[in-house]
Structure formats: structure tokens, C-alpha cells
């Protein structure tokens, strides 16, 4: 289990209070707000667009079971105005990611900032072994970036995901020179090295025997492939199960050839 999930499990359920908000675990009674958030064009503008009815139903069922998923309740009127969550970041093992969304009627009053600030401070103070925390937001999501920057969070990395440029923020201040910053830089360098090595390995006789398009393999052939849990999200190793040497060789999610060792944090 990812160390972030382990840390969360040990302290969940948790409630957070700020001057104007209560963050409490999502319940099945929040289903209407979940649907509203997932289908609102403005809320979903930088999150892949409005979700399908199937996805809405899946999220309505999953949130109440998910450690780290809070409903954001405005104390003055008791209304649920959004969701905030913290969980394992699939891009980097041991790193937590915070996400947040408010109904447009609650924008513009600093409530998002208050909620995200509470989650980040709580994680840092309550979960000392929880690892670094990041927020990932589209480069063009100006409101979200303003929110993070107003909390003093700093931009440590950028990446392309879901067809858009994404900015990775982490708490700043003393952490300006944090492990995370170095990890980000090392990861970028490592990716370059792995791609170079991948292109070289693909050009060898053994590399050329590997299938070009792994997605068209019939299930039987696919089941013979290396089943390892790979270092970077979306990577597929094209080698056969149990291959030696241990270096994985395959395709990254953007189709480029990469070679990598499983244990590297990428
Ligand atoms: C991202 C999101 C939460 C930002 O909401 P927001 O209300 O603009 O952000 P904040 O809570 O920081 O509020 C800041 C605004 O409130 C104003 N404000 C008013 N009173 C305030 C107070 N007491 N404290 C702080 N700001 C206050 C600020 O001046 C600022 O105004 P501005 O946007 O004109 O500069 C919201 O746009 C949203 O839910 N978007 C959809 C989901 C999404 O994209 N999530 C991000 C990726 S996970």
C-alpha cells in the first residue's frame, strides 16, 4: 500500500475547522452536491469537462468510502459548498496531492483558499511522515493558481497531462529548497536519461523484436508481458514476464520508448 494511504488510514476520519468552514468526511447525503460539482461547466472547465452520469454515480458511491475526501461546509448557513481531498499522488510514490472544487456561487470570497490552506497545514502538522504534498493545476487555471500562490505555495514543476500543461505547486517558505524541489529536478533529468536509454535499447536486435503497438495485443499475448508495477504512471513494459536483465523497456504514455528500473521514484 502506498505510504500516503497508510498515513491517511491511521488518522481518518478527520474534521477540520477554519473561521468560516467545517471540512468533514463526505457522506451519501452529499450526493446532490457531488453531482452538481461534477456536471457544472465552470467547475469542470479545467478538469476535463462535465462528467458522464456513470462517472457521477461512481464518484457519489466512492467519496464516502475514501479517506481524505471532505465536504466543505459553510458554517453560517450549514450548506455544503464544495469538496476537498488529499490522497496519494499517482505520479510519484510517497507524495500526497490535494484537490479542491467549490460551487461557483461560493467563489470569490476566499473560501477555497481557507479550505486548501487548512488541508495543507493539517497534512504537514498532523502527518509528519506523510511525505510532501503538492497541488497540480492546469497552467491556464488562473483562479486556482492565484489561490495556491496566495497561500505561499511555489511552482516546483510543470508537466503535460490529459492534453494540457499542468503546474505542480508545493508549500513554500522554508521548503523552497526542499527535498521535493530536488526530487522534481532529478525526476526530469531521470526521464531524459530513461528516454535516451529506451531509444538505444529499441534500436538493438532484441528491442526491434518487441511489438510496436501494445494496445492491439490479444489478451493471451498481453498476459505474457511483464506484469510489474512500473515506476511511472502509464508506462507499459513490452518485455516478457520475468525478463532478465531487470531493466524494463517499453512505451511511455506519450508513446516514446523508455527504459527504466522499477525502484526509481519518477
Ligand atoms: C479553484 C477555486 C476553488 C478558486 O476559487 P476562488 O473563490 O476564486 O478562490 P479563493 O477562495 O482563493 O478566493 C479568492 C478570491 O476571493 C477574494 N476574497 C474575498 N474575501 C476574501 C478573504 N476573506 N480571503 C481571501 N480572499 C478573499 C479574493 O480577493 C479573490 O478574488 P479574485 O479571484 O478576484 O482575485 C474555484 O475556482 C473552483 O472551484 N474551480 C473549479 C475546480 C478547480 O479548478 N479546482 C482546481 C484544481 S484541483
Automatic annotation (TrEMBL):
**Pfam hit, one:** Acetyltransf_3
User: Where in the numbering of this chain does the N-acetyltransferase domain appear?
Assistant: 21-174
Q: Which residues form the signal peptide?
A: none
- The organism's superkingdom is given as Bacteria
**Under which name does UniProt file this protein?**
N-acetyltransferase domain-containing protein
Query: What is the scientific name of the source organism?
Result: Streptomyces tremellae
